[in-house]
Write a structure and sequence with these properties.
127 residues, single chain
Length: 127
């Protein structure tokens, strides 16, 4: 006899009494696709007048549609974006430096106030 007995062995589940009422399993693939709307095709979207489709994990501009951005404009925008990101990083660095300077100055100011209060208390004791 096992040490723990049959306490930990689960009971067997009884078989189902009724079958599923759905008849979707009996439909062929094409009927199921029409009924359930499973034929998605490639995802497309229209953004700012430009039609894009999703292929191989990337959004690609559809060819032959006016209003698309040409290659030179895209390169110009990438360069401008890079320039703005660098400027943003520089400004963040400057803000960090200014905050450090402010913290240091505030700490020095508090120390000076504390020394001034101590000197005032010493001078009052002498009187």
């Amino acid at each position: 006899m096992p040490l723990f007995g049959s306490i930990f062995s689960p009971k067997k589940t009884p078989p189902r009494k009724s079958a599923s009422l759905s008849n979707l399993h009996s439909l062929d693939h094409s009927t199921r696709e029409v009924e359930l709307g499973l034929g998605y095709g490639t995802p497309t979207m229209n953004l700012a007048g430009q039609s894009l489709k999703f292929e191989n994990g990337q959004w690609i501009a559809e060819a032959g549609i006016s209003g698309g951005v040409d290659r030179r404009e895209a390169q110009r925008l990438r360069r401008r974006n890079q320039q703005l990101e660098e400027e943003n990083n520089l400004l963040r660095l400057k803000v960090d430096i200014l905050l450090d300077m402010l913290s240091e100055t505030t700490a020095e100011s508090h120390l000076m106030e504390k020394e001034l209060d101590e000197l005032k208390s010493v001078s009052r004791r002498r009187k």
